[in-house]
Each structure stands twice: as structure tokens, then as C-alpha cells.
Write a structure and sequence with these properties.
Layout lengths: L4 E5 L3 H12 L3 E5 L3 H7 L4 H7 L5 H7 L4 E4 L2 H8 L4 E4 L15 H14 L11 E5 L7 H11 L5 E5 L9 H6 L3 E5 L3 H10 L1 H4 L5 E5 L1 H32 L5 H9 L20 H14 L5 H23 L9 E5 L14 H11 L4 E5 L4 H7 L6 E3 L3 H5 L4 E4 L10 H5 L6 E4 L8 H6 L4 E3 L10
Parallel strand pairs: 1-2, 1-4, 2-3, 4-5, 5-6, 7-8, 9-10, 9-12, 10-11, 12-13, 13-14
Helix pairs in contact: 1-4, 3-4, 6-7, 11-13, 11-14, 13-14
The structure holds nicotinamide-adenine-dinucleotide.
């Protein structure tokens, strides 16, 4: 068993999942967050409560199984006390974009780092005997490790190191992904810091299939931003070029084109799915941050900007096509919105396309918006409270009943089975398939009287 003591600051998707893996690796783990309710739920020892706060498959089990080595707190006093014997503090704070400037809002990070610095300077009765590493897991600007070091020194912290250890987890598969990562990236300047991190990540250092990569802090931070950009770029190409080509001509099935593309090993299969939008808290803001940083150094960031714009264009187009191609107006209509999570297997609605869709449908004068999502309705309700015009339903069936348009916005696997339900309806609503979830049924649905507006297909009129 490890004798390492680690602290996590921030118990969001990244903090909670990596803290769970840390405890599972045998380290004594303390997790702090300013959000008292989140801490209460995550520390409740009850799987349902944990998942109500943060839905990630396997997270409840992992937290409960490792509860002996894992504590959650919203008391900073407890954090300060734990610093006396702490080996590493993981910073897992949000770094959202400021408006639409591309600049990262570092105020959460800054505030947490300053508070930490003040406490670190007082550890061991001010003697600061214990060497401690501050580990940055948030996605931050490339030079952030230097800035963290500056904050620490300014507060009089001694005997410390700063490490950049970006997080590559994939929401919806975060626990499995963190237990079996493709890579662990550690950016440090001192041998001593690499050694501390090697002990923390002992289980992954020589694990088959895991690349353990030691680099400089700037390389680690840049690698994270660039990895996200490569993935985002891939999605944008798929939406804006591959999908668009399939929309432009009849008789091209996106799935058949995909087969032709992904059998080339140089192209590969990841991300070759058409969708109404790449949402979530990372791709867009990280691309914007990368572009902002490049421009700040006097360099062009045309391609980075265009990828961001292509993604935005995709969602605008999905909504516009209803009016332009299907001649559909929302005024006085009932719409069913299936899926509010930004993607399947998560309850995260940050930057979800459904936020834009719901606003457009309501602004367009819809009489009623009927919403269903298997996991992400609670957070959506905070943005669109239930009302006469916004109803939350217990099932897909309740949502689509009497709808004039059915919008599939999230790729929850269960939505693939919507065919029978739609066929059983008395009405024939416009089907807007933002994920091609029902592509295997398009011919049958058309014959049964449905008009279909799907990403990656031209408008498919009923019966033809
Ligand atoms: N979500 C992902 O898939 C993912 C993947 C890789 C990297 N990242 C990056 O990791 C970072 C965190 O992302 P996240 O999704 O976990 O965010 P999140 O919003 O889910 O969690 C952040 C947490 O920090 C807490 N917090 C805010 N200020 C605090 C403070 N002063 N002290 C303590 N806690 C504080 C918030 O209450 C929240 O619970 C971001 O930089 C993000 O870009 C996220």
C-alpha cells in the first residue's frame, strides 16, 4: 500500500474521477471543493447520490470501494491541516472562456492557487519541511506552470515543485479511461518532481498499453491543447466536409462513405460520425484558447478559428434547414427534444447543442417543448425551468406523443430503438435526426409517411 498523501482541489468531472483513481491506486486522498452540495453527494457513500451529482459509469462503485482512503471536504481548515504531510496537490479548477474572447478565465485557478499558497507557506508550523508538488490538471495556457510558481514564491512558499499533468479523460468513459489511460503526461523541470509523480502513477508507469511521457511543463500543456484541437478538427472535417458532401448529393449514404474512409488506416475510424454539433466543456474553449495564445504571439490562427466556426455553422445549419428545406415553422407547434446531455453517457449539459435548440424553438414561437433525457434533465431544468411551455417527460414515448417535430439531439444508444415508437404514432412529425441515430430506418420511416431532416443526408421527403 502506498504511503502517499494527495489533495485534490476541485471535485468536478476531472477532480472526482482522478481522485477516485488515486485512492484506488492506494494513496490517501482528500478532495476539496467550494460546492458544499457536491461534496455532500460525492462523499455520501451512496451510489445513486453520487451519480445524481456526477454521472460517470463506474464512479459510484469506485468511490464507495475506496472510501477508506478517500475523504471529501468543503472545509479549508481540513485541507490546511492535511498539507503538513501532503506530497502533491492536484489543481482541478474550471478554466472557461471569457465571453467569446478566446481568453481563459483563470480566476478560479488563481483564487484557489493563492489560497493554497497562503496555507502552504504556513505548513509544518511555517518551517515548510515537507516537499510538496503542485500538480496542474486543469487545461490552462501554455505558460501556466511558471505563473503558478510565481504565485507560490510571492506568498513565501518554499520546498515545492510545479508539475503540469494534463487530463485526457473522455467524459462518459472517464472512469474506465482513467483506470486504463492511453498515456500519462508529466511535465516538470526537476528530477525530484518527476520522481514524486512516478510514485503517484506507479501503477501506470510500466503498464502495458500506457505511454508514460515525461516532458517539460510547457510541452505538457501545449500537448493537451493540441491533442484537443486535432480531435476537434477531425469532427469539424466530418461535419463540414464529409457530411456536407453527403447532404449535397442524393444517393450517398454517410455510413457507406464512412466505410470507404475509415478502412484506410491512415484515416482511421475515430470521430467519423456526423453530428449536429461537438459540444461539451472542452473542444470549443480549448481551440479558442489556442487561437488566442497564437494570436497573442503575433501569429495567425486561421485554421484553428475556422474549425471553431465550422462547428458553430453546423448547429445553425441544422436549425435553418427546418425552415429552408422542410418549410417548417415552430410557431404554435409542439416539439419533442430527445437528449439534453452534450453527448451520451454523461449528465453534463455544458455547451450542449440542446441549449441552443431549446432557445431557438421557444423563440420561434413553439407552443410546447417536451424534453426527455435519461440522465441530464436536472441540470437542463435549471436553465429552462418547467413551465406551461417547457415540459419534462418521463420517457421518449411521453415526449413524442402529439409532437409536430421530434429532434434527436444526443446519441444515447436507446434512441436507436425509436423506430417502433414513431411508427406507432397517429401523427407524422418532422423527424430531425441530429445524430443519424435512425439512419438504418430512414427508408421505412419515409414509406410510413415521415419527412426526415438528418445531418449527413439531403432533406428526405415522406413517401418518395
Ligand atoms: N471535463 C472534461 O472532460 C475534461 C477533460 C480534460 C480536462 N478538463 C479540464 O479540467 C479542468 C476542470 O474541468 P471539469 O470538467 O472537472 O470542471 P468542473 O466544472 O466539472 O469542476 C470544477 C470544480 O471546481 C470547483 N471549484 C471552483 N472554484 C474552486 C475553488 N476556489 N476551490 C475549490 N474548488 C473550486 C467547482 O465547484 C467545480 O466542482 C478544466 O480546465 C477543463 O478544461 C476537463
Amino acid at each position: 500500500m502506498s504511503d502517499m498523501n494527495v489533495i485534490y482541489i476541485g471535485a468536478g468531472y476531472v477532480g472526482a474521477c482522478s481522485a477516485a483513481v488515486s485512492a484506488d491506486s492506494g494513496h490517501n486522498t482528500l478532495v476539496y471543493d467550494v460546492d458544499k452540495e457536491k461534496i455532500r453527494l460525492l462523499g455520501s457513500g451512496d451510489r445513486d447520490s453520487i451519480e445524481a451529482s456526477l454521472f460517470e459509469e463506474g464512479l459510484g462503485d469506485l468511490l464507495v470501494r475506496n472510501s477508506a482512503r478517500l475523504a471529501f471536504t468543503s472545509s479549508y481548515r481540513r485541507v490546511s491541516a492535511a498539507l503538513d504531510a501532503c506530497d502533491a496537490v492536484f489543481m482541478c479548477l474550471p478554466t472557461p472562456e471569457i465571453g467569446e474572447t478566446g481568453e481563459s478565465d483563470l480566476s478560479y485557478y488563481d483564487k484557489a492557487a493563492r489560497k493554497l499558497a497562503a496555507s502552504l507557506a504556513k505548513r509544518n508550523g511555517g518551517k515548510q519541511k515537507k516537499y510538496v508538488v503542485i500538480v496542474n490538471k486543469s487545461t490552462v495556457p501554455v505558460g501556466m506552470a511558471d505563473e503558478t510558481e510565481r504565485i507560490m514564491r510571492q506568498a513565501g512558499v518554499r520546498n515545492f515543485g510545479v508539475v503540469s499533468n494534463p487530463e485526457f479523460l473522455v467524459e462518459g468513459q472517464a472512469v474506465q479511461g482513467s483506470l486504463r489511460p492511453d498515456r500519462v503526461v508529466v511535465g516538470a523541470k526537476k528530477e525530484r518532481d518527476f520522481t514524486v509523480m512516478q510514485r503517484i502513477y506507479q501503477r501506470f508507469r510500466h503498464a502495458p498499453g500506457v505511454a508514460y511521457i515525461e516532458v517539460s511543463p510547457k510541452e505538457a500543456a501545449a500537448g493537451k491543447l493540441l491533442a484537443n484541437f486535432m480531435l476537434f478538427n477531425r469532427l469539424a472535417v466530418c461535419f463540414d466536409v464529409v457530411g456536407r458532401t453527403c447532404e449535397a448529393f442524393g444517393d450517398i449514404a454517410f455510413e457507406n462513405v464512412r466505410r470507404i474512409l475509415h478502412t484506410d488506416p491512415r484515416i482511421g475510424g475515430w470521430g467519423l460520425y456526423d453530428s449536429l454539433y461537438a459540444g461539451g466543456s472542452c473542444f470549443n474553449k480549448d481551440a479558442r484558447s489556442l487561437s488566442h495564445q497564437l494570436k497573442g504571439r503575433g501569429l495567425g490562427a486561421g485554421l484553428v478559428e475556422e474549425v471553431y466556426r465550422a462547428n458553430k455553422r453546423q448547429l445553425d445549419r441544422f436549425l435553418d434547414r427546418a425552415e429552408k428545406e422542410a418549410r417548417f415553422s415552430w410557431t404554435g407547434k409542439r416539439a419533442a427534444l430527445l437528449g439534453t446531455a452534450f453527448k451520451r453517457n454523461t449528465n453534463d449539459i455544458r455547451n450542449s447543442p440542446s441549449l441552443v435548440i431549446a432557445a431557438a424553438v421557444l423563440e420561434g414561437g413553439a407552443e410546447e417543448l417536451r424534453v426527455y433525457d435519461p440522465q441530464a434533465m436536472a441540470s437542463f431544468k435549471r436553465v429552462f425551468p418547467p413551465s406551461k411551455r417547457v415540459r419534462y417527460c418521463r420517457s421518449e414515448a411521453a415526449a413524442v406523443e402529439s409532437a409536430d417535430a421530434v429532434i434527436v439531439a444526443t446519441d444515447w444508444p436507446q434512441f436507436r430503438g425509436l423506430g417502433d415508437l414513431l411508427m406507432s404514432l397517429k401523427r407524422r412529425p418532422l423527424l430531425m435526426d441530429g445524430r443519424r441515430m435512425l439512419q438504418h430506418l430512414y427508408p421505412r420511416l419515409r414509406q410510413a409517411g415521415f419527412s426526415i431532416l438528418a445531418v449527413g443526408s439531403p432533406f428526405l421527403k415522406r413517401g418518395t
